[in-house]
Design brief:
Number of helices: 10
Helix content: 25-40%
Distance between the termini: 31 Å
Length: about 350
């Protein structure tokens, strides 16, 4: 245990040092192994959320689910010095029946594991298997305090099913005398539910979850606004072009849109030529493609394929090095970065 703690700490020092030196010298200096990765159990889903490429059948990459042997290879190669593993990318993780085996295997490697769900598969059997697997943290999406507000975004979803699943989870966890996994309600703030912020906090408390998280929404075509976009303030990632940027500034718009009226929207934060995620973590799709971050939902910027190369060769390869170099020189030239809120 102490040996692993030392190795993880030493790896953290190498990651941070390489990143800081890269910013100072404006060239790619990369040491260490990832401290966090996301592995996609499946990219299939039961819902049709309007801003999700999976729900809207917008992904051009193949659809499928990871098998346990492939998962073990990914963890063995990429998880040598991980702090935590995220079992989620696109899709609903509980649609892969091997999810519990994946969690158990990662926990056997002393890795902190968390996942996310839309809450429609929290049957008593699945709840018990989740708890027994050793999962550390489970995020449950609940974007409303009634069916009307909830289904405005979670199209095809049932509010009462999710709430009952949460109640059952809290009850069974208590009956088993186990404190994990930590349960979080995640509330995506939208125009249709922003008036329910106080209500969702009260609901979270009454259900007995460990935490209620309010999250801003990402929109793909945000420049001309979006019917789901909340009314300004702290719960929107975007602002009208004609308004003041505040201390964080705003991203420059693309040249062909520069003459559009002041009702055009831009992202609030200034897009700096840096991103710690490129030095500290990555995402692995269900079929083994390594992509730089969770914004690359269609695996457009594939750094390598773990069916063809080892993770170390991909992580330290020329393609990854060139991508990090682009981040340092001109981050806004990368499409997936233009809608990103990562500041450092």
């Amino acid at each position: 245990m102490w040996k692993r703690c030392f190795c993880v700490f030493y790896n953290l020092l190498k990651i941070f040092s390489g990143y800081i030196f890269s910013l100072i010298f404006h060239r790619t200096i990369h040491w260490g192994h990832p401290i966090s990765i996301s592995i996609e159990p499946t990219n299939k889903c039961n819902l049709k959320c309007p801003e999700c490429p999976t729900g809207q059948h917008g992904l051009t990459r193949s659809s499928g689910s990871i098998d346990i042997e492939r998962f073990k290879i990914y963890v063995d190669q990429a998880g040598k010095k991980l702090l935590y593993l995220i079992l989620y990318f696109q899709g609903e993780p509980y649609l892969n029946r091997l999810l519990f085996d994946m969690i158990s295997y990662a926990k056997s490697k002393k890795i902190y594991v968390w996942s996310s769900t839309n809450g429609h598969y929290l049957t008593e059997e699945n709840i018990r298997k989740t708890i027994e697997s050793g999962l550390d943290n489970l995020v449950i999406s609940l974007d409303g305090t009634n069916q009307e507000a909830y289904e405005n975004y979670r199209v095809g979803g049932d509010y009462e099913t999710v709430v009952q699943g949460i109640r059952d989870f809290i009850r069974i966890r208590k009956e088993m005398g186990i404190r994990h996994p930590r349960l979080e309600i995640q509330f995506l703030v939208l125009k249709s539910n922003q008036h329910q912020i106080k209500e969702i906090k009260k609901l979270g408390n009454s259900l007995g979850v460990d935490r209620t998280v309010l999250k801003t929404a990402q929109f793909y075509d945000f420049e001309q606004g979006n019917p789901l976009m909340p009314d300004g303030g702290q719960w929107s990632r975007y602002r009208k072009k004609g308004t003041k940027a505040g201390k964080h500034g705003g991203m420059k718009v693309r040249s062909h849109q520069s003459q559009i009226s002041s009702h055009q929207y831009i992202i609030k934060n200034k897009l700096r030529n840096r991103c710690f995620r490129m030095w500290s973590g990555c995402v692995i799709t269900w079929d083994g493609k390594v992509v730089p971050c969770c914004f690359d939902k269609d695996a457009v910027h594939t750094m390598g394929d773990m069916n063809e190369q080892s993770f170390d060769k991909i992580w330290r390869g020329e393609k990854y090095r060139e991508f990090r170099k682009r981040i340092l020189k001109n981050r806004k030239s990368i499409e997936i970065c233009r809608n990103c809120t990562q500041r450092w």
